[in-house]
Specification:
Elements (H helix, E strand, L loop, with lengths): L1 H114 L5 H25 L3 H22 L1
Helix pairs in contact: 1-2, 1-3, 2-3
């Protein structure tokens, strides 16, 4: 009987150990499920946070691009206004030169009429040159009034040369 009790005792111990191992295994499996669930939740929250950050960054980039565009537009408007102002001033100066040139031509024509046939050929040549300069100045004024911003710098150089030539003739 002692042997039977000993066998039963060993079976009971073996069964207890087996139950403990099974219980621990089940607990570990349940913890893995909880950890998996926590991991999935964390990944979901991280994905949502990344998506929200991306939306915020996109909105900020759009706002910065809009601000930059507004600054460029304002600078372009200012440049266009400067161009128009400079062009209008140059045209006004050329029209003043045109009036002075017209006065010289009128005076010379009146002198020629008074002198009649006694006018030197040199005076007639000078009148012809003034009339040619007057015609060229009228063309320059027309080009200036219709100039685009892109062509303005080149046109302005030509006007300066012509103005210097006229001023030199006056002296």
């Amino acid at each position: 009987m002692k042997k039977v009790q000993l066998v039963f005792s060993q079976i009971r111990s073996f069964m207890g150990v087996t139950l403990v191992v099974a219980a621990l295994s089940l607990t570990a499996c349940q913890n893995d499920n909880k950890n998996e669930s926590r991991t999935e939740d964390a990944m979901e929250q991280t994905g949502e946070a990344v998506e929200a950050d991306a939306e915020n960054a996109t909105a900020e980039a759009r706002e910065e691009a809009k601000e930059a565009g507004d600054k460029v537009e304002a600078a372009a408007d200012e440049t266009a206004a400067d161009f128009r102002r400079e062009r209008d001033e140059a045209v006004a100066e050329m029209k003043d030169q045109e009036r002075k040139l017209d006065a010289r031509i009128d005076k010379m024509q009146a002198d020629i009429k008074r002198a009649g046939n006694n006018v030197k050929a040199e005076t007639r040549e000078e009148l012809a040159e003034l009339e040619a300069e007057r015609k060229e100045l009228a063309n320059d004024i027309d080009r200036a009034q219709n100039a685009t911003a892109d062509a303005w710098q080149e046109i302005k150089k030509g006007f300066k040369r012509a103005g210097d030539r006229l001023d030199g003739d006056n002296n």
